[in-house]
Structures are given as C-alpha cells and as structure tokens.
Amino acid sequence: MSILTRTSLHLTRILLRCSLNRYTTKQLYPFRRDREDFARKLMLVSFYCTKGNKSVADASTIIADIKPELTSAGPLNIDKNSTDESISEIEEKNEEIETKEGEETASKLSVDTSVSPTIISTVTQTSSARTTSSTGDEDGDHKDDANSWRTMKYTFTIFGVTVTVTGLFLLMEFGAPGLGEDGQVIEDEYSKLSIPAQYIYRTFKQMNYYRKLINEPSRDKLLPDELKYPYHQPPYTLVLEFKDVLVHPDWTYNTGWRFKKRPGIDQFLEMLSGIYEIVIYTAELGMTVFPILEVLDPNNLITYKLVRDATNFTDGHHVKDLGKLNRNLNKVILVDWDTDSVLDHQDNVLKVLRWDGNDFDTTLLDLANFLRVIAMSDVQDVRDVLRYYSQFDDPIAAFREKQRELERTMYNRK
User: Fold this and answer.
1) Which of 13, 74, 110, 196 registers the highest number of CB atoms within 10 A of its CB?
2) Do 401 and 298 share a domain, yes or no?
3) Is 324 part of a structural domain of the chain?
4) pLDDT per position as a tens digit, 261-317
5) Considering 143, 178, 193, which residue would you say is the last residue of a domain?
6) b vs e for 62-78, b when ≥16 Cβ sit within 10 Å of the residue's Cβ?
7) CATH number of 276's domain
8) Which residues make Cβ contacts (< 8 Å) with residue 299, sequence separation at least 6?
9) How many distinct structural domains can be found in the chain?
C-alpha cells in the first residue's frame, strides 16, 4: 500500500473519530467561524495528500502541522460549498494523473479514489450530525432562556411583595398615634390631618429619629457640667484617643488578637492627674474599650470614657465633635494621630505619631512633660500653642529639641 493511500486512510479514521466526539469540538472551538476554518484546513490536507506531485515528506509535514488540532478535535463544522469544491478538485486531479502516469499510477489513484468517497460520506454524515446537534443546542438554549426569565420574574415578584408588605408594616407601626395610660389617643401636631397623611408624617418623623441616633451623638452634652466649689475641677481638659495612642491591637499565633499596653502609660496618667481632666474619646465600641480601661487604669485616674455612640457618623466615618464636650475649648487639648477623626475645631488637636507597638517607645513621657509645661505656664488659650506646634510633623520631638536649646541657653548664662 502506497504512502499516499495510507495517509488518506489515516485521514479517514481521523474524520470518523472526530464525527463521534461531538461535544469536544464545540468546547475546543466555541465559535462557528473557528470550527469552519478547522474543517477547511483538514480538507486541504486531504487534497494535498492525493496530489501526485506531493512528496512523502511534504505530506508528513502537513500532517505534523495540523496534528495538535486533529488529536483534540471533536465534530467538524464544514461549509458544504467549500467541501464540494475540494472534492471536485480531488476528482479532477485523479483524472489528470490517470492520463499521465499510466496503468501503475492509475492503480494507485484508484485506491485514493476509492478512499475519497469514504471521506465524502464521512464529511456528509458529520455535517448532518452537526446540523442536528445545532438544532438541539438551539432548542436547549431557548429552554434555558425561558427558565432564566421565569426565575427572574418570580424573584422580582417576591422582592416586590416583600418590600410592599414591609413598607405597610412600618407605616402602620410608626404612623399609629400614641396612646395614654387610659388607652386614649394622644393628639400631636399631625392629628388634624387626614388619616393617611397622619401615618405618613409620623413614620417619617420616627425614621428621622432613628437616623439621628446613628449619625449624631446620643446626647447634646457629652460631659456633665463642671464641678463647683468645694469640689476640685481641673483647669484643663485632656482628650485622648484610645487606639494607637494608649494601646495597640496586636495579633500573634499564640495569643490571637490582644491590645498591647503602651510603655509609660502609668507614669503618664499619674503625672497629669489633678492638672488635667482626662477623657477617653474614641470611635471604638464600648464593649471593647471599657474592659481594657478597667485593667489599664485600676486607680480610676481617667475621669470620663466616651465611645462610638458619642461620635458623629459622617461620610461613612465616625468623627469626634469637640463642640459637644460641654467644656471651654480654650482649655481643651485633643491628642490623636488622625486629624481627620475630628469634625471641627482642628486648632484643639495635637497630632502625635501613631504608635505601632514598639516596646522602647518613650513618647508618653515626653508628652506628659509637654502638657505639664502648658498647665504650669497658665496658658489662657491652648489653641495658640497647638497652632504653633502643628507645623511640625512630630511636635513632641520639636518640643524636646526646644527644651534642650533652653537648657543650653540657661547653662551658658551661668
């Protein structure tokens, strides 16, 4: 059997195998244009293999080039016109070779010709299978689309019913008039309106009330009034951020999450107690802050503790409102590492570097010296001092440097 005959038989086996693996080709070539291109390429190889002037090496090269696609291909998506043209070209070439080559060549081509109808029938069967599978796939797609649309319609219907029922429940719950102890209706500013208008306006009033509970501090005065004589009221108020000023959240494999105590915090509180009214003001939750402060301050040197419910919720962030502290802002100092955590009154903020958990940190001791100097100097408006130090990235380091300069000046005078 000649090389060309074996090659044609090989291609026939490939075509038969490809026609059986219907879904593989659809996954390999998801687009129709790609499948048609592959089919034309395969027919072109078949045509070249039947040409008498093609050498064995050329035929082997063509087979090797297309082998990756042949081995992984599935069904062929062949354009019928291109297939008919290829077949007619093969037949014409066979006739020319029979005339030129004589009986020996004609016998070889007769084998090839006998193979060609097999290829033709295989391609025809493959085309029919492809058409049938395409029709089935289209029907399946239509069914899937119908099911998807039905599911979406049911989902929107259930969602609409749920929203409607919830809205009616809130309207009846929040819009109902109040009742007294005797069970009589309590009149309000909406009692003279129509029944639907009464329910709507009362509902909006209740919703606005809950919105304020979330967005605004829970009370207008965050701190009680200042103590009167004979009780002692410190002249200055020191407001401290909790996280990364006094403690730092830390996580390890052995302990999990825990809050690390900043070095020097005990001395810091003792040095400022009595001179400053010490207040913790943070956006952290009370359930986190209060237990830690009980351990951190066993002597109760911290006077007040303000947590998240005392902040304003603005633009997705909880910010502090110093205007509601109920203290004279001339004597209020806020120590924080984040100036954006303050709504207004930026002149009352002393920005310090954020503590990252360093065990050799001495910032609190230097900060205590800085605050004691302000208190002993009887500064009438601390904002003047804080505005000056706001120009430095690290105001505590700037204060230490000025203290050294002052010591050197006093030493030189002596």
Assistant:
1) 74
2) yes
3) yes
4) 999 999 999 999 999 999 999 999 999 999 999 999 999 999 999 999 999 988 888
5) 143
6) bbeebeeebeebbbbbb
7) 3.40.50.1000
8) 269
9) 2
For 120-174, write each residue's pLDDT tens digit. 455 455 555 555 555 665 666 677 778 888 888 889 999 999 999 998 888 888 8
Interatomic CA distance for residues 119 and 102, integer angstroms? 25
In a domain, 204, yes or no: no
Say whether both 138 and 240 belong to one domain: no
Residue 271 CB coordination number (10 Å): 18
Percent of the chain residues topping a pLDDT of 70: 66
Are 240 and 107 found together in one domain? no
Asked if residue 382 lies in contact with residue 333, where contact means CB atoms within 8 angstroms, the answer is yes
Q: What is the pLDDT of residues 318-377, one digit of tens each?
A: 899 999 999 999 999 999 999 888 878 999 999 999 999 999 999 999 999 999 999 999
Is residue 189 situated within a structural domain?
A: no
Measured CA distances, 376 to 232, 299, 330, 362 (Å): 17, 24, 15, 22
Same domain, 258 and 129: no
Instruction: Map 195-217 to HEC letters.
Output: HHHHHHHHHHHHHHHHHHHHHCC
Three-state secondary structure readout of 260-312: EECCCHHHHHHHHECCEEEEEECCCCHHHHHHHHHHHCCCCCCCEEECHHHCE
pTM confidence score = 0.56
State the Cα–Cα distance between residues 303 and 109, nearest whole angstrom.
107
Residue 87's domain spans which residues? 3-143
Strands 247-252 and 256-261: antiparallel
| 3-state SS, residue 179 | strand
* Residue 159 parent element (H or E): helix 80-175
3 state SS of 335? strand
